[in-house]
TrEMBL record:
Recorded family membership: Belongs to the sugar phosphate cyclases superfamily. Dehydroquinate synthase family.
Main location: cytoplasm
Signal peptide segment: none
3-dehydroquinate synthase C-terminal domain mapped to chain residues: 176-317
Lineage, opening ranks: Bacteria, Pseudomonadati, Bacteroidota, Sphingobacteriia, Sphingobacteriales
Protein keywords: Amino-acid biosynthesis, Aromatic amino acid biosynthesis, Cobalt, Cytoplasm, Lyase, Metal-binding, NAD, Nucleotide-binding, Zinc
GO (cellular component) term, any one: cytoplasm
Official protein name in the record: 3-dehydroquinate synthase
Biological role stated in the UniProt entry: Catalyzes the conversion of 3-deoxy-D-arabino-heptulosonate 7-phosphate (DAHP) to dehydroquinate (DHQ).
Length: 356
């Protein structure tokens, strides 16, 4: 059965067989179809797409290398050039088939090519299904500063099939689960509680995917361009993005987005407790929740200056003050809170000194 959510002028479809994708394409008159994949989604997801919509046989493939380190201007130029080589005009449609790197990069390339062509998101990771494919944030990183170049451009539609998740490895699934826990923490205590009972390896994830998108949609439809409320979707990201950027630059096996924001959510829950009324027992529950899913990352005091520098670039900052969204309770998040460096360092120390 198809479930749908009406978003910002487009529909998010939840259906294993992607029937609505076939009818979406057959009812629109696109001059050309471009499918953006990375190497892994080319191998694992494109065959599935071809299988479920065999009537779509005429398309051009653009392939990028997988991974966050490629969500940058060089790869974006490569995508734009390939679009030109394929002779894509303004009536072309871009299908972004992949995780958040492909949906962010492909959305950005489409939003800017010839001042914008239509694109649709077909997310293939848990993270991109519960978060990245919905809401119209497109973008790329610059010098490991996360998503610093980008647009708010909504897709024409989003098609979510949990069948794609069968080939996803466990580490990636866990990374996506961090954003599900985030949605519970900021908006829905019951979802936060439910995450304790989810077995990521064996459970059907359709229900939590749908609930996550419903929560995100509730927020973005009230504030599409992050003037206020949408900032709550950034809980854990002021510190998390800095740690992710740091790790991309320095670690051989860098943290994934969800792993970094899980760390960020622990630190920012500490700040929520110290500065915004989150109860001590709820702080402990947040720590336990993330400990049940993620290994700890080794923070060292030598990293702190660089982390603070990276935080200077956060889009929630104002007048050089570091901007945060902080929990008041589990299921309730406030935004436009500005935090002193000393408190941020204390929160990093809180994480660093947590008992194993
Ligand atoms: N725009 C937004 O609102 C938003 C929200 C959250 C995160 N993001 C961004 O999303 C990115 C992270 O997304 P991600 O975690 O999906 O990472 P990703 O796109 O790098 O995908 C993770 C890995 O899984 C592989 N893969 C994808 N689908 C697969 C499948 N079905 N089977 C096997 N392998 C598969 C990819 O090739 C990649 O190696 C970050 O750049 C983050 O900043 C954006
Ligand atoms: O959709 C949003 O709004 C979010 O903040 C969702 C985040 O999970 C996501 O990581 C987003 O890309 C962060 O955006 P940024 O503006 O902090 O770069
Ligand atoms: Zn995120």
């Amino acid at each position: 059965m198809t479930k749908e959510i009406a978003s910002l002028g487009y529909t998010v479809y939840f259906e294993k067989n992607l029937d609505s994708l076939a009818s979406f394409i057959s009812t629109r008159e696109y001059s050309q179809i471009l499918i953006l994949v990375d190497r892994n989604t080319n191998d694992h997801c494109l065959p599935l797409l071809q299988q479920v919509i065999p009537q779509i046989s005429d398309y051009d493939i653009i392939e990028v290398d997988p991974g966050e380190e490629n969500k940058n201007i060089d790869f974006c130029i490569g995508v734009w050039k390939t679009m030109l080589d394929f002779g894509a005009d303004r009536k072309a449609l871009m299908i972004n088939l992949g995780g958040g790197v492909v949906t962010d990069l492909g959305g950005f390339a489409a939003a800017t090519y010839k001042r914008g062509i239509d694109f649709i998101q077909v997310p293939t990771t848990l993270l991109s299904q519960v978060d990245a494919s919905v809401g119209g944030k497109t973008g790329i990183d610059l010098d490991n500063v996360k998503n610093i170049i980008g647009t708010f451009t909504q897709p024409q539609a989003v098609f979510i099939s949990s069948l794609f998740l069968k080939s996803l490895d466990e580490r990636q699934t866990r990374s996506g689960f961090a954003e599900v826990i985030k949605h519970g923490l900021i908006f829905d205590r019951a979802l936060f509680e439910q995450t304790q009972y989810v077995n990521l390896e064996s459970d059907d994830l359709d229900d939590i995917i749908y609930r996550s998108v419903a929560i995100k949609n509730e927020v973005i439809t009230q504030d599409p361009t992050e003037k206020g409320l949408r900032k709550i979707l950034n809980f854990g990201h002021t510190i998390g993005h800095a740690v992710e950027g740091y790790s991309l630059l320095h670690d051989e096996n860098p943290l994934l987005h969800g792993e970094a924001i899980a760390l960020g959510m622990i630190c920012e829950s500490y700040l929520s407790h110290k500065l915004n009324g989150l109860k001590e027992e709820d702080l402990q529950r947040v720590v336990q929740r993330f400990d049940a899913v993620f290994d700890r990352y080794t923070l060292k005091t030598e990293m702190y200056d660089e982390l603070l520098m990276l935080m200077q670039n956060d889009k929630k900052n104002e007048a050089k003050q570091l901007g945060f969204a902080l929990l008041a309770d589990i299921g309730k998040c406030d935004y436009n809170l500005f935090v002193e460096e000393a408190d941020i360092l204390e929160s990093l120390n809180f994480y660093k000194n947590l008992p194993i």
